[in-house]
Design brief:
Distance between the termini: 44 Å
Structural class: alpha+beta
Shape: elongated
CATH architecture of the largest domain: 2-Layer Sandwich
Number of helices: 13
Oligomer: single chain
Amino acid sequence: MVVVVTNKSRRALLANFLRTRRARLSPSQIGLPAGGRRRTPGLRREEVALAAGVSVAYYTWLEQARDLHVSRSVLESIANALRLSADERLHLLQLADHLDAPAPVERQEKREKLDPLLQRLLDSQGMNPAIITGPACDIRAWNRAACAVFGDFSALPEHERNILWLGFVESTFRQRLVGWEDYAQEALAVFRAKSRHVVDDPDVVRLVDELERVSPEFRQWWPQHNVRTVTDPSQEIKHPQVGRLVFEHLSFQVSTHLNLRLCIWLPDPASNTLEKLEELLKWEDADVR
């Protein structure tokens, strides 16, 4: 089954994104007089239109998710008016279909068994925790070091093996994250940016619905439409057995499976994390015996 993002879904995402970016600005931030009291925070539509050099009607149609063919120059003007960051500008252009989108994601009704070569790649990382995730942040595979650091993924029901889910619900993963709120907001912003390609995927819809049901933080942050390309590479873990662990996080798209990503946590060489990982994995081996 091929999951395709419909034009209607893309227009709705674009409209919501513009509204949230408009709501966070004040007139003075774009060089306009403050005027009188406002019933709602942020700029008025006509102020954005004025700053962007487009008609009020045209900008209003964008926020109403009308079927328009917007030129790149108009989008750039709107991005400038809304003071968008580089990541937000990229997101805007992609939502408006002005940048190449990835090919539609092939989704199997029953998840296929992972390529053994990818599992070997994970296992070859040794002391470096490593996982492979799917398009909905679902954890498809992991190595021993990942379980030792973040918790035993194999002990979780399959539907709970999800980075975003584990970051927002009470879990071993969340408990061990230092500064989990910052991490969760960053991970959510990355998910928001990437999910534009799979917004109609039933797995993504189900994940968002479930997180809105169980997590007050998710309910608060998801409507904000914040986006970013990557999370902060630095990540700190407070482990119950070995204490503080400090990592640098990297992720890569798997070229032979474009809907999968390889995520690796490298021990910070300025810390004693590597020595602690060696100790931790020795304990894990002793427990297995």
